[in-house]
Write a structure and sequence with these properties.
By secondary structure, the chain is an alpha/beta fold. The chain is about 40% helix and about 15% strand.
């Protein structure tokens, strides 16, 4: 049966023929969109901050130390292996960009949206997705930067259907998700909860997340990982699109 004109929230199923999920760090796509990745046969995770830093801090950062790393360890190499294992569980392809996590860099050296967008755009163009899912950009400066870089790419490549996924853990911080929605409502594109068919498989998602072995202790410490996985909140995706014609003024009432 051909897809008729959508009602509010519906998306043409053809949009999910080739899915890209943009991930700030190695574990974010599995946590925020793991069910989605496991539900479709042609998916790719593009991890933006997958590059080695010029130097690792000595002693290691608190996050890395909680993950069991010591001075001299190649953290990114270990986390790339974890990522390959997780994406094998989810049956998803991967691309790694060579930008570094903000924890390893002084503020002036951290990648900006304008610096990241061209490389991210090239990879998305190469893959040719029908749908792109990007983080809402909550709480963590890397997530905010990747969100903003993704919107720059969307400006250049509007043809895929663009969505946001909710950043796992950070979306539970009071006010942050509402802040992002209201910010986008003012600036456009509008985020609207979308009906994205996917099959929740909690056991499979958990297996994927726990492949990120070095991330589990700090995630337990700062994000109550096990509690959130044992009381799962359904993955919610927000479609990014212009306001319906004539509705633009609604943002003036925020």
């Amino acid at each position: 049966m051909p897809f008729a004109e959508a009602t509010w929230g519906e998306v043409d199923p053809a949009a999910f023929a080739r899915v890209v999920v943009v991930s700030p760090h190695f574990d974010d796509a599995a946590m925020g969109a793991g069910h989605l990745l496991a539900s479709y046969p042609d998916t790719t995770v593009v991890t933006v901050l997958a590059g080695r830093p010029p130097a690792y801090p000595d002693p290691p950062s608190e996050w890395d130390a909680l993950g069991g790393f010591v001075a001299g360890d190649d953290v990114v190499a270990a986390r790339r292996l974890e990522d390959l294992a997780a994406l094998e569980v989810l049956e998803s392809d991967h691309r790694w960009l060579e930008f570094s996590d903000h924890q390893y860099l002084a503020p002036p050296d951290r990648p900006t949206p304008a610096q990241v967008a061209p490389a991210l755009g090239d990879v998305i163009r190469e893959i040719g997705p029908t749908a792109v899912f990007v983080p809402m950009g909550l709480g963590n400066p890397d997530h905010v930067m990747v969100h903003e870089a993704s919107l720059l790419v969307r400006d250049e490549q509007p043809d895929p259907v663009w969505f946001c996924y909710e950043d796992h853990g950070y979306k539970h911080i009071p006010g942050l998700l509402a802040w992002r929605v209201s910010k986008m409502l003012r600036a456009h594109p509008w985020p609207t909860p979308a009906i994205v068919p996917h099959v929740p498989d909690e056991a499979r998602k958990r297996r994927a997340v726990f492949c990120y072995t070095s991330q589990i202790p700090p995630l337990e410490n700062e994000h109550a990982l096990t509690a959130r996985l044992e009381a799962p909140v359904p993955e919610q995706f927000w479609r990014l699109a212009p306001p319906p014609e004539g509705w633009e003024g609604l943002a003036d009432f925020i």
